[in-house]
Protein: SDR family oxidoreductase
Amino acid sequence: MDLGISGRTAIVCASSKGLGRACAEALAEAGVNLVINARSPEALESAADEIRNAYKVTVETVAADVTTVEGCEALQERCSAPDILVNNAGGPPAGDWRKFEREDWHKAVDSNMIGAIFLMRAYLDGMAERGFGRVVNITSGMVKAPRDVLSLSVAARLGLTGFVRGIVPAYAAKGVTINNLLPELFDTDRLRNNIGVLAKRDSLSLQEAIDVQLADCPAARMGRPDEFGGTCAFLCSVQAGYMTGQSILLDGGRYPGVF
Structure:
């Protein structure tokens, strides 16, 4: 399928590895030029070279923490008028919510809610003026099925989800969509780190803890990052122009509810 976005420009945050990298590659495959971001310059430049060589698109880099004021400004200086914005940031640590201090909660909100809001503030109005825009926020399956061990992530990402739904009507008639992708059980370093916390708590090996997580997953496997990236690219396509304000869960059928 031709997604109709070849030649567009996308910012993809936290995209040197994991789900962000998968989104960047899927967009590049569709012919989208990229501005990719990560905090580690070495990993970022390596990813940029690999994507350029594989897909023959322009790939620029911004090594910065875009959840900070300075990082957000650095991204705007490099790319002032993107067509697509993929918000992504590493989640806060897992653990017992009773042991998190006030500063832990502030960091979680800055990283997983406020950072994305400020990038949307920087770019949404320009997208609306140009008549085309796609924003995809990578959040978490925990938004629909919260767990106490990921309480920092749940609280911040639910705040972002509510904010997005509130602003969607202002942009829906202007060619701009804003959607959220909710991954769960995708085979990434972050997932393995989080499951490692559970493994330690329950005196299990990492593989045993993974098997426990998969026990109630109908797909009976972890998701592949490329599956996630392909879904992101579709949400950025011309075909998805009537889909906005949605939170799309990708979890192999694990969530037991109807809605």
Remarks:
- The chain is about 45% helix and 15% strand.
- The chain has a mean pLDDT of 95.
- The chain has two domains: 9-184+224-248, 187-222.
- The longest strand covers residues 176-183.
